[in-house]
Prior knowledge:
Elements: H1 7-19, H2 24-36, E1 59-66, E2 69-76, H3 79-92, H4 97-102, H5 107-110, H6 119-137
Antiparallel strand pairs: 1-2
Helix pairs in contact: 1-3, 2-3, 3-6
Amino acid sequence: MEQIGTVKDREQQVIEDFAVYDDWMDKYEYIIELGKSLEPYPEGKKTEDRLIKGCQSRVWLDARKEDGKIWFSADSDAIITKGIISLLIGIYSGASAEEILASDFSFVEKIGLSANLSPTRANGLVSMIETIRRMAAE
């Protein structure tokens, strides 16, 4: 499972992917499709210690470090949230801790994601980002 390009390259690709859609309903559809493409998450890893705190829906995130890279896997019980975590791990999985910590996650603003989520989902997004950053810092 090799990631193409740097974190910055992958962030830019997401910005370009979202630019294709004019309407936020189409962007939500795209996010839902991302969630459907997420690799299956083992039931045995759906544990309390892997739940992201601060999300209204349940989001599990797991990380393993291998050869200086961090590989994330995740799942959620809500389809939009599953798409959002899929988007995040698509960018940050396979990156080094340094790359993740150097990211300002500004692509989230550039694609308009925060502004087009309900307040509870936007808070959940912040919690997901904080958890990815914390895992990279450990």
